[in-house]
Write a structure and sequence with these properties.
The chain is mainly alpha-helical. The protein is 62% helix and 3% strand.
Length: 657
């Protein structure tokens, strides 16, 4: 099963799980309504007959009671989901974490941040925000609505007790939750369960109010008894609903943990790292338990159980440690070693200590030389997207090392990160570069412009293959911008794109990657209800890529036709270059993003066929394809020379059947 099949299954599982929980809610509403009617009958001294509810109270009253109960559950869920609308950041802060992307406080935090950045670059995803929880136990989590607002959380014990391979295994496990679409489902579960729990809390408040009141007389006593019964009934029903909701949550979570363990092994190409981390949890006195008062609410999101083990495994959100370890190491002897702080030095490997003087050496080892041919690009689309391997991790390390040390440091600062993006969108040399630099002096913040002058030479000397990784490194710092700063930044980027009076597709792709990485719900206003809008969007993207790769109209038309053929679309004239505008490109991407998961690989193969209609893909074209894939929520890892061959590139139509 590949990334697109996982995404499709996640959508179906999400719909099924939400359906089950909604059914539970409807049953809860029905039972609660009957209970309320019975108590009203008792209070009015009338016999209760479930078959005569309508005649007893009137269907309008019964409907109002059911609507009130349903509204309480829905409003409780909406309230919790609103609290979590910031995505993973809200979860991390609720658990007491602090972000380390901008200013890691220790060597252990620097190492953890470096591991996460390597994983992100290796998988082609924006670098997530990394939070450290001041807990002595070993645990981690991934949370968010999508990869753009994803957060990786690591406990203090995790970054200090685990060696680099074990930490890499844990981080790979969490990235698999991001790839497999688990995060959004986890957030929805929290919201729905909170809505059900509110019924129990409402019953508790009613019970307290009734118990604290004073009364006299039979009628008052009967009314007080009714309130006490109502409160008790609501508590029982609410907590019963929560009981069954937690059962569903636990059953789903346990199976996904096995899948994430397997994905982590596939990512790192070793079972020793993640198995070693699980063994250290078993040998640590605090294990994986979290002390936070809200640990139970997010229990299904953790790497290992964050709660004390109960007498029964009914509510266990994670499989037992021995079961997970034996799946990874069948020959394990069953012993947990005593866990102490890792003696491994936190110093970065030599490959990541390289300064600017060694950049040229890494540039010479660029991932893809111009004119190289890919070995079955279709297989790369099917098997590499959302499914990176150890070769991608090694390439991610090399790409990081090819970025000058000054730029890697600057990417973690909100002022310098904006300067980096401005410079990436500028032309490399010539009159256009001077014109854009002069424009930036006028429109950029003075502090940002100082960073532009300081970093300009380093950006110019950096290999082209490092542009996307550097942009990904900037994402956490750019997300830290306040709304006013972000709006000015975005307007300046658009002015920069329009400054040379022509549309450069690569510049637009960088702009689109940046916006997609910062905005968690981008361009929803651009969606079109028009029938055939997705097909039109695919045609427009094909036309843009065809013109980007060819200045000659006839060659561009041949590339466009190759893409149409790969997508099984009717032949049509190639739109003129003047028809390509930034708003229309943005709208085409926004519409294409709504394609069902199983239709996205076909679009990517069609775009690749367009660019490689002559059987050859240039290195810059591969990076452009990766940028478009990122904007479609399809994380495409970087590609290296080991993934290429001298054989002609297979046409998309040859392996699509």
């Amino acid at each position: 099963m590949n990334f697109f099949e996982y995404q499709d299954r996640a959508r179906r599982n999400s719909a099924l799980l939400v359906g089950l929980l909604l059914l539970a809610v409807l049953l809860l509403v029905g039972i609660t309504t009957l209970t309320v009617v019975a108590l009203v009958s008792y209070a009015s001294d009338q016999p209760f007959n479930p078959l005569e509810i309508g005649s007893l109270l009137g269907w309008d009253t019964v409907g109002m009671i059911a609507l009130t109960i349903a509204s309480v559950i829905v409003l409780g869920s909406i309230y919790k989901l609103h609290q979590l609308s910031a995505g993973g950041r809200a979860v991390a802060e609720a658990l007491g974490g602090h972000k380390i992307n901008l200013a890691p406080r220790s060597e252990a935090e620097k190492r953890a941040l470096n591991v996460v950045e390597e994983m992100a670059i290796a998988s082609g995803t924006p670098v997530p925000e990394v939070y450290v929880l001041d807990e002595s136990s070993i645990n981690a989590f991934a949370a968010g609505h999508n990869p753009q607002d994803a957060v990786i959380g690591l406990t203090r014990g995790c970054i200090e007790h685990l060696n680099r391979d074990e930490l890499q295994g844990v981080v790979a496990h969490e990235f698999s939750h991001i790839f497999n679409g688990d995060m959004k489902l986890n957030i929805r579960l929290v919201g729905l369960l909170h809505g059900i729990l509110v019924i129990g809390l409402l019953g508790y408040w009613v019970l307290r109010a009734a118990a604290g009141g004073s009364s006299s007389g039979n009628r008052d006593n009967r009314g007080r008894g009714t309130l006490l019964g109502l409160g008790a009934a609501l508590m029982v029903l609410g907590y019963t609903g929560t009981f069954f909701g937690n059962l569903i949550k636990s059953a789903v979570s346990r199976q996904r943990e096995y899948l994430a363990d397997a994905s982590a092994v596939q990512f790192t190409r070793t079972n020793a790292g993640i198995a070693g981390a699980l063994k250290k949890i078993g040998g640590l006195s605090t294990g994986s338990r979290l002390a936070s008062s809200q640990a139970a609410e997010f229990s299904h999101m953790y790497f290992a159980s964050g709660l004390r083990q109960s007498l029964t495994n009914m509510f266990a959100t994670h499989p037992p440690l021995p079961a997970r370890i034996r799946r990874l190491e069948p020959s394990w002897n069953g012993l947990f070693p005593s866990t102490e702080a890792s003696s491994e030095s936190f110093a970065e490997p030599a490959a990541r200590q390289t300064g600017d003087a060694r950049v040229a050496a890494f540039a010479a080892a660029a991932p893809l030389a111009s004119g190289t041919r890919l070995k079955n690009l279709n297989a790369s689309v099917d098997n590499s997207i959302g499914n990176p391997g150890q070769d991608h991790i090694e390439l991610g390390k090399r790409l990081l090392a090819s970025i000058p040390a000054s730029l890697r440091a600057a990417a973690h600062d909100p002022f310098a990160a904006r300067a980096i993006v401005y410079l990436l969108l500028c032309q490399r040399d010539g009159a256009a570069r001077k014109q854009q630099t002069a424009l930036l002096e006028q429109i950029a913040h003075p502090g940002v412009y100082r960073e532009i002058k300081r970093l300009s030479a380093s950006i110019s000397a950096m290999p082209a293959s490092a542009r996307l990784p550097l942009l990904d490194l900037c994402m956490p710092a750019l997300r830290a911008l306040v709304p006013q700063q972000y709006q000015v930044f975005r307007r300046n980027l658009i002015k920069l794109l329009h400054s040379d009076d022509r549309i450069d597709l690569w510049e637009w792709a960088l702009y689109r990657v940046a916006m997609h990485g910062i905005e968690s719900r981008p361009d929803e206003h651009r969606l079109s209800p028009k029938k055939g809008a997705q097909t039109d969007a695919a045609r427009y993207l094909l036309a843009a890529l065809a013109h980007a790769g060819h200045t000659d109209y006839l060659e561009a038309n041949r590339a466009y036709s190759a893409g149409l053929e790969a997508l099984a679309l009717d032949k049509a004239p190639l739109p003129a270059r003047t028809d390509l505008t930034l708003p229309r490109l943005d709208k085409a991407i926004a519409i294409a993003r709504t394609l069902p998961p199983l239709r996205k690989p076909r679009l990517l193969k069609g775009l690749a066929a367009c660019m490689a209609h002559d059987g050859v893909l240039q290195a810059e074209e591969i990076e452009l394809l990766r940028a478009v894939a990122d904007s479609l929520d399809c994380p495409m890892p970087p590609m290296c020379a080991d993934m290429t061959s001298g054989e002609p590139l297979l046409r998309a139509t040859e392996s699509a059947h």
